[in-house]
Every structure is written in C-alpha cells, then in structure tokens.
C-alpha cells in the first residue's frame, strides 16, 4: 500500500519547493492536508502527482502546485478572514484552514459543496464553512475579507469581490478572454476606490460561471474563448504539404544556417514524424552541407547503418536493431531514408559523405534485456519489479511508481552486482569486436569513455530515477559534441530524438519538478542561437507501441487530444499540417508561453490511463523554437526480421 504521508512530503519537496514556493507556512500546510481524502474513489494512488484530477460534476481538483502558488500569493496571516470561490473537492479550503483564522468557501454545485463539507468535518477543520451559491457575488455576510482566492477563470475580476476586500486585502484570480488560458493576477485594495494589479503569469482554469463571470446558459461564450487561442494558431500557421512532397522541406530552409538542427517526435512509432524528419534532413544534406545525422539509437547498431550508407563492408554479426523496440528503427520509413543516404553518398567524396550515428549510451535496451533475462532466472519477483520500473522510465511520468510499486526487495539488491557485471561484460565484448574496425568507434577516447561510464550508468539504470535520465542525455550530448569536433569547425548536424529529449527541459515538468535535463537544453546552453529545437505533434490516429516494456508491438489507436492540451488547441485551429515558427510570430510565442498539457508517447502507450501516463505540463514556445503539426497520423510499418521473412539476407543494414 502506498505510504501517503511519505508521498505527501515528497510532493512538497519535488513539486512545490523545487518550483519556487518558498513560504514555509504554505509548505507546512500542504504537508498537513491528506489530498487522498479529497479525490474520487479509485484515484487515491494518484493523489500526490502534480496534476489536476477529475471530480464530480465535470470539475477538477486543482494540481497541488497551483493551490500552493495561489495561497502563497495571497500572503495569508494567521488572523486573516479568507474567502475561497470554487470550493470543488474542499482540498484548497483545507489548506487555507491551516493558514487563516477563518475560511468561507462557495461552490455552485450543491453535490460538491456537501461532499466537501463532509470531508472537512471528518478532518476536524472547524474553521471552514461552505455554502452553495454564485461565487462571483461573494459572501457579503462574512465580508470584509483579508484575502479572496478564486479557483476558476473569469473574463475579468468581479467588482463585487473587489469591493468585499478589506483595505490592504488581496484578490487572487485567473482572468482572460480565453477560457482555460488566463493570467493569474493579484489585486490589492489600496483604498475605497483604488486597486493595484500584478500579473503572476499564465495559468489554466475551468471557467468561472456566475453573474459576473461566464454565463452558463450562453455556452458560446466559453466556446468562443476556447477558439481564441486556436484562432491565433490558425493565423500564424504556415501550411505544409505532405512529407513525401519535395516542397515539404521548403519551409525549413530558414534553419539551414544553424550548427545543429534537432528534430523531435511525439512518439517513437509514427510514420509522419519519420518521413518529415527524413525530408528535412535530405534537404539539409543535399543543399546545405550537413554531414552528421545523429539519432536516439545505440552506437553499435547505428554503426552498422553508417557502414551501409558509406558503402563500407559489413563486419558480420547480428543485424542491427533486433531487440525491443525493433520497430523504432527497423521500419520502412527509416529503410527508405538510409537507402537514399547510401545513394547520395555514392556521389560524394571523402568528408562530404554524410554519416549515420547513434548517440545513446551503449545498447540500453539490450542491457535491460540482459537484466531481465538474469532476473527471470535468479529472482522472478525482482524481474517483475524491474519490468515495471523500466516501463516507467519516461520523463513525462509524474510518478514512476504508478505502474508498479517498485519496492526494492532483498533479492533485488542481491542480484545487483551480478547484473551490473553482466552488462559491463556485454559492453566490453562489443567494444573488443569494434576494435577490429578502427572507424566504428572513431577513436580510443570514445571507447574509454563508454567503458568508464558503463558501470555507473548500469547501476543508476538498475534503480531508475532522474540520475538515469541525466546521465544518459549528457552522454548523448557529449557524443554529439565529439562528432562535431571530429568533423571540424564547419561541421553541422541533424539530431533525431523524441520531443522529451529535444525540447528544452527547463520549460517542462522534467526540469522544473524532477531536476532532469536533456539534449535540447544542453544544445541551447552550448550553441545558443546556432541550435534549432523543432518539436512535432498530432491529435489522433494510430501508433506502433507496446503495452509493457519488452512487450509485443501493437498498432494502437491514439485517442483525440485532451481538452486542456496544446494539441487540442492545434487541432481546433483547423489546419491539417502546418509549421509554427515562434521566432517569426512573437504574438503566438507569447500565447503559447503559458504551461499547458502536452502529450508524450514513447515505445509504450497506455490509452486507458493516458492523462496520467502520457501528459505533462510544458510551455511550448519556450520548449521549442518551432513546432510541426499533423492533425492525424498513422503507425510506422515494421520491417520483418530475418526469421519472419524466411530469406537469407543479401544486403544489410536490416538483413532483409
């Protein structure tokens, strides 16, 4: 069973303190209130993830960070009289009750108000009173208030609420003409008819319904607001043809002068993303002299592709990319690109040939397979824990434990030394073979770096967490640096990797909450404006993915994007395929600088728990320099393995 108290303390440290909430009284109040008591039955295990959760009447319980941020902005003193508008589950009122002398809360849904009152009573919070009513009208009988917190977004701050403030009182409210896209403001009453307003940044809230808010019987008001951001996107969007159209790459000529162009993907199994990256890369190679294609793949496997595209002989051994997830690189779209690259290089000489290189630390997937194989025989219980843990090693997961309480058993710890040794030996054997081919790992320094990093990496990988992610991405970035250095000062590279590696981690939950970094961030820090970070996204379609780590590939239906996501805004813009260039559209960049949900699908896709397992908060226009949109996409087509095809391979890289 989940240790809620421990989870609560970790939430405060990870999601609140690390993101800048500094008021110790607020942090202590968040430590005291059991959020699991305020969520709907069945959602208790998600209570301490920093995300909103559904409650009755189509409403949500706010994410903990927002509750803490608003409470801190209100500057509540122990003697204060506080009003909350939009009580919902009662969670925020419970937090406020630890900060103020008295809390009055209004909720327009009677069912929610009654349930919230019962929860607060069960916790013994006697200084809170809840009633059903129109929150925009306030609570005159309880006024004046030292602080008012409104947990819903209105078109403007209701004058009635402002007038119920004490002189010096603070009103914290999301306002904006775009529903679910507002600015959080703090309004301080300086005198009877004088107020001071401060902008605290972009936020996302449900609409404030009431006499001085949005009208419930006029749904067009909310619908108009939801269209406002999509309309901004539609005005700024540059329409793109199909990726197979030679004109597709025209729009990306603007990035040809960069030292590094990083091309993302919202999943590891979507054909349009591969085809689009291939089209852009072909243009950069053919017309602008890019000679490095560096991909989120293991070095030895990519080295086999590199020998193929450079017309060098096969060194024998197993065909590349034969381990889970085989479809990520063994698919028809990659095959078409590397075949083109081989034909292109056949016309080039020497350093003008373009190479295909893997950035990843040696065969992480193969190493994980080795871990699982060993544990299956030595400790099946530990093997089950490991499978769950590896399946959740994704930076967008709010809490890896969601899909498996990866409690380290004594057996798990006992196996560690043998597993690490096995992985280290696996790496050393591969490097020994590579020595015979002096160009496969281009110098002894690369070999030494891999060997030195192996044990440390495999140990942190075995236990999971941010250290694993950071070590891996630093290694990939350093490999990219060495490729550029080896090729000379004029060398330029294209990087293919997942959005979670490409988009600057500092503007996502990865960096803000979990202290994770990525290649995109490191490239911006190292290359500045010479790096272009380009993300990709989609609304719906199909994707090649597994349900669990090391599971079978399935063609899964991608659910339409979440209402509060940036993908939904792009979908509502009406464009089928387009490019958003934030540098050329400052108005658009500002509109998309607020944090919104963003979808991340890796090699695992679990649509039944999509909101919790595949969405995270991110500021799109700060995360990327540009964004490529496809409204509907389809899964990649995997290549058959040698056994499946029933033919003896005559060519490599894929041994078909």
Automatic annotation (TrEMBL):
Active site: 62
Keywords carried by this UniProt record: Cytoplasm, Methyltransferase, S-adenosyl-L-methionine, Transferase
UniProt domain Ribosomal RNA adenine methylase transferase N-terminal: residue ranges: 66-191
Stored Gene3D superfamilies: EreA-like (biosynthetic domain), EreA-like, domain 2, Vaccinia Virus protein VP39
Keyword S-adenosyl-L-methionine: yes
GO biological process: methylation
Domain of life, source organism: Bacteria
GO molecular function: protein-L-isoaspartate (D-aspartate) O-methyltransferase activity
Family: Belongs to the methyltransferase superfamily. L-isoaspartyl/D-aspartyl protein methyltransferase family.
Name of the protein this chain belongs to: Protein-L-isoaspartate O-methyltransferase
């Amino acid at each position: 069973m989940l240790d809620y108290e421990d989870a609560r303390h970790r939430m405060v440290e990870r999601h609140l303190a690390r993101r800048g909430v500094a008021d110790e009284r607020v942090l202590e109040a968040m430590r005291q209130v059991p959020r699991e008591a305020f969520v709907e039955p069945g959602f208790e295990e998600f209570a301490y993830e920093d995300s909103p959760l559904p409650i009755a009447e189509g409403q949500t319980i706010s994410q903990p960070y927002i509750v803490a941020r608003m409470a801190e902005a209100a500057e509540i003193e122990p003697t204060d009289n506080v009003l909350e508008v939009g009580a919902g589950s009662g969670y925020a009122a419970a937090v406020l009750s630890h900060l103020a002398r008295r809390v009055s809360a209004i909720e327009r849904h009677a069912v929610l108000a009654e349930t919230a009152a019962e929860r607060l009573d069960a916790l013994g919070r006697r200084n809170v009173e809840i009633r059903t009513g129109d929150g925009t009208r306030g609570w005159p009988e309880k006024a004046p208030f030292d602080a008012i917190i409104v947990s819903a977004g209105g078109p403007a701050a209701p004058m009635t609420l402002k007038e119920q403030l004490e002189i010096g009182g603070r009103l914290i409210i999301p306002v904006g003409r775009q529903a679910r896209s507002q600015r959080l403001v703090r309004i301080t009453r300086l005198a009877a008819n004088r107020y001071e307003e401060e902008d605290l940044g972009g936020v996302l809230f449900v609409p404030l319904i009431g006499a001085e808010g949005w009208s419930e019987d006029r749904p067009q008001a909310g619908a108009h607001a939801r269209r406002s951001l999509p309309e901004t996107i539609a005005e700024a969007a540059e329409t793109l043809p199909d990726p197979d159209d030679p004109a597709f790459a025209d729009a990306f000529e603007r990035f040809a002068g960069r030292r590094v162009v990083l091309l993302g993907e919202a999943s590891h199994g979507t054909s349009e993303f591969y085809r689009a990256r291939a089209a852009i890369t072909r243009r950069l190679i053919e017309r602008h002299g890019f000679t490095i294609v560096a991909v989120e793949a293991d070095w030895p496997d990519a080295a086999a592709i590199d020998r193929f595209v450079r017309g060098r002989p096969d060194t024998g051994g197993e065909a590349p990319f034969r381990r889970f997830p085989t479809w990520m690189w063994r698919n028809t779209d990659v095959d078409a690109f590397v075949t083109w690259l081989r034909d292109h290089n056949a016309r080039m000489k020497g350093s003008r040939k373009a190479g295909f290189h893997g950035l990843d630390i040696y065969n992480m997937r193969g190493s994980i397979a080795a871990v699982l194989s060993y544990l299956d025989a030595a400790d099946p219980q530990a093997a089950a824990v490991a499978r769950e843990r590896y399946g959740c090693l994704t930076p967008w997961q709010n809490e890896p434990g969601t899909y498996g309480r990866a409690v380290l058993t004594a057996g798990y710890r006992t196996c560690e030394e043998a597993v690490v040794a096995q992985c280290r030996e696996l790496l050393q054997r591969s490097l020994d073979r590579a020595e015979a081919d002096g160009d496969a790992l281009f110098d002894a320094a690369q070999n030494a770096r891999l060997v030195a990093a192996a044990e440390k990496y495999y140990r942190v990988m075995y236990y999971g967490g941010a250290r694993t992610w950071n070590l891996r991405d630093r290694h990939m970035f350093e490999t990219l640096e060495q490729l550029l250095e080896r090729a000379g000062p004029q060398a330029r590279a294209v990087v293919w990797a997942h959005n979670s590696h490409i988009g600057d981690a500092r503007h996502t939950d990865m960096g803000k909450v979990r202290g994770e970094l990525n290649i995109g961030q490191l490239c911006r820090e190292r290359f500045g404006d010479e790096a272009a970070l380009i993300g990709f996204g989609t609304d719906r379609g199909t994707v090649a993915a597994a349900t669990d780590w090391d599971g079978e590939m399935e063609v899964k239906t991608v659910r339409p994007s979440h209402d509060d996501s940036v993908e939904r805004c792009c979908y509502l813009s009406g464009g089928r395929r387009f490019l958003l260039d934030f540098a050329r559209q400052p108005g658009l960049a500002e509109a998309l600088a607020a944090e919104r949900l963003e979808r991340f699908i890796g090699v695992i896709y679990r649509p039944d728990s999509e909101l919790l397992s595949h969405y995270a908060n991110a500021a799109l226009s700060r995360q990327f320099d540009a964004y490529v949109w496809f409204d509907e996409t389809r899964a990649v087509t995997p290549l058959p393995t040698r056994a499946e095809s029933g033919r003896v391979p005559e060519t490599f890289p894929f041994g078909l």
